[in-house]
């Protein structure tokens, strides 16, 4: 392929993908690492900063994946790096369950303050989003004394046992790993682009909300449901955005039956959607929230924040973990939140999303394969279809576009139940020039791959 050489651009491609050093590392990976962990781009990182990543062969990419939404403040933000160095010189991990440390408490206080709702709240920490989900379910069951948990079709909540049971997509997340956790159920979540029976959005919302009442009659009575867990915007499910009406309707059902409403903010939190947390777009205050990913600029830490009386339901020793809320993770998270506030990154997400949406909507007029464009803040996606009328998913075109974009120096990922969605999760610190350059690459990849479809 033709190599990128424009010195005014951020992207610099010096070798084919994978390059010679990456190919040697891929051989070592094949021998030492199981095939199960997936990889988006067939190369290895050497260094990264902001929205740029350079691999071991000297190729520099613009990052539109952001470690699957973990890098809202970018790669290696200097303020976070300094906070980590400072913490490293004090202590690394005395374990909160052995000897407590102030950063854990300070971060809990901060999350209690900035999460939605003025009610008394408490927070505790774990290592990953899946762990946060597992513990939120434990807390809801302990508080209510109930057994059933409801999630939504196309939802993704993690790969551990309960989280996997709540997750919707069979392959690759659940295939062959059953049986799953009992008393977990799934309800439909609005997908307006693919609304059944030609229903208008308000009609679809009403239809889906009525199905809750049917579920309580046919499967589990509402009085036995401990929790409903919902992503404010479905991430892995394809960046599917519900209406305010639907989310408020679900919350009203929860209140009617005394069900704990859990907002899974693992991917939507910390400025990504144009608000501090995605649920704020819907005028709903959750009972519990799960958080991870961009909370700490890529360090492994997660949180559950919720109503104090719910969070206090488990007895001493019933929740926790050896590495939960590590000092390094807490120090990084406190600095991330400071950056988010001081640099107004949620506002920046709105402008990034407007730029992405504007470009993709215009491109939709030229590329018939673009069926839908969805954006909330800087959480953006395009859905590719074989026919704009039938809306048949085009998984193959999606895969080709992603591969072409990678070769041209753009790191970007797919998503969706049908694997036909391209999602954009660029760092919120991306420059205007980098954003436009990345969108240029994506546009060219889409046009070239769509044109090759026509020619064949």
TrEMBL record:
**Molecular functions (GO terms):** (S)-3-amino-2-methylpropionate transaminase activity; 4-aminobutyrate:2-oxoglutarate transaminase activity; identical protein binding; pyridoxal phosphate binding
Alphabetical UniProt keywords: Aminotransferase, Pyridoxal phosphate, Transferase
Keyword hit for Transmembrane: no
What Pfam families has UniProt attached to this entry? Aminotran_3
CDD domains, from UniProt? OAT_like (cd00610)
Highest rank taxon of the organism: Bacteria
| Reactions listed under catalytic activity | 4-aminobutanoate + 2-oxoglutarate = succinate semialdehyde + L-glutamate; (S)-3-amino-2-methylpropanoate + 2-oxoglutarate = 2-methyl-3-oxopropanoate + L-glutamate
Q: What class of enzyme is it?
A: transferase
- PANTHER family in UniProt: AMINOTRANSFERASE CLASS III (PTHR11986), LEUCINE_METHIONINE RACEMASE (PTHR11986:SF58)
The entry sums up its family as follows: Belongs to the class-III pyridoxal-phosphate-dependent aminotransferase family.
Q: What is this protein called?
A: (S)-3-amino-2-methylpropionate transaminase
Q: What is the lineage of its organism?
A: Bacteria, Bacillati, Bacillota, Bacilli, Bacillales
